[in-house]
Design goal:
With 312 residues, the protein is α/β, with parallel strands linked by helices. It has 2 domains: 135 residues, Rossmann fold (3-Layer(aba) Sandwich), CATH 3.40.50; 153 residues, Dihydrodipicolinate Reductase, domain 2, CATH 3.30.360. 29% of the residues lie in helices and 27% in strands. The chain contains 8 helices and 14 strands. The longest helix has 18 residues.
Length: 312
């Protein structure tokens, strides 16, 4: 099994590490990267045409290059008829390209790497929303804080190259989760802003908020300038649901009364549900590769996500 990588940054390294554990069949990796000296000179190339000369064909490809190259590298993979294509988010321009162009039948599956769509906990929340099993949803809050903006070498890294980097990287995940949970057709009024930190003089926080057509409020914050914290909280008419990437908390039912007939805080239950990171997304993709079958493309609302991001 020949596996191609475009780019070999931290995300690509995490994907490869998981593939090493998940795939038990013989496999070979090939890397296309401008700076190839930090990988090896045997399986690393400057472009795909060079790689094809040695590997002849690839079972699948992971496009993990910088955001601005996603569409260009996607077109390369189409031209060389790589059947299974995984593009890391935000996959700029790819959904729009597909709307205007039909692909060769040799392309069996495409997946855009918004991996939280494959998270068991988030799927559970989506099921609750759609089933209306705890009443109607009132509000959705998502906060992802990473704290990396205060590292000594932060301003020298790629994240500090432009102020919109926080929205395109971390913020895009939150937006995509909200779209997945609420439905792209339901998001109507919204506004966003990128906040400049007083402490480090860099735009390290992205806010996005709005309402659905049913007046459900959502509030999203992605920050490199806060302590490490990731939390999702959903308020229903008969449930408060929260998730800290390790445990799901449920507070219900609403109608809990004390001895005087006054409302009291509902009892809380916990369910262990460790966030798998990229693993469920990658395994879902690789299972399709191994099957050899055709599948409906999983674009994961990438086009609409980037459309909302572009409104900054």
């Amino acid at each position: 099994m020949n596996i191609l990588f475009y780019g070999y940054g931290n995300h690509a390294k995490r994907i490869k590490k998981y593939l090493d554990e998940y795939l038990t069949i013989p496999k070979s990796y090939c890397f296309i990267k401008k700076s190839i000296e930090n990988i090896n000179k045997v399986d690393s190339f400057n472009d795909i045409s060079e790689a094809i000369k040695k590997f002849k064909e690839f079972s699948c490809v992971f496009i993990a290059s910088p955001n601005e190259y996603h569409l260009e590298h996607f077109k390369d993979c189409i031209n060389f008829k790589i059947p299974y294509i995984y593009v890391e988010k935000p996959a700029i321009g790819i959904e729009e390209f597909l709307q205007k162009n039909s692909l060769n039948k040799s392309i069996k599956f495409l997946q855009i790497g918004y991996h939280y769509n494959y998270s068991p906990a988030i799927k559970k929340l989506k099921n609750i929303i759609e089933a209306n099993s705890f009443g109607s949803l009132i509000r959705l809050d998502i906060f992802f804080g990473k704290g990396i903006a205060f590292k000594d070498n932060f301003l020298e890294g790629w994240r500090a190259q432009k102020h919109s980097q926080i929205s395109e990287t971390l913020g895009s995940h939150l937006l995509n989760i909200a779209i997945y949970l609420l439905g792209r057709e339901n998001i109507t009024y919204n506004q966003s802003i990128i906040k400049k930190s007083v402490e480090n003089s860099f735009h390290d926080t992205y806010h996005f908020s709005g309402f659905t057509k049913d007046s459900i409020m959502f509030s999203l914050t992605a920050s490199w300038g806060s302590p490490l914290n990731q939390s999702i909280k959903a308020y229903f008419s008969n449930l408060i649901w929260s998730y800290d990437m390790k445990n799901i908390s449920k507070k219900y039912p609403r109608d809990c009364f004390d001895e005087y007939g006054l409302f009291k805080v509902p009892p809380e239950t916990f369910e262990n549900c460790e966030d798998p990171g990229i693993n469920t997304s990658i395994s879902s993709f690789i299972d399709k590769v191994l099957s050899g079958k055709d599948y409906i493309f999983e674009l994961n609302n990438s086009g609409f996500t980037y459309e909302l991001l572009s409104r900054n």
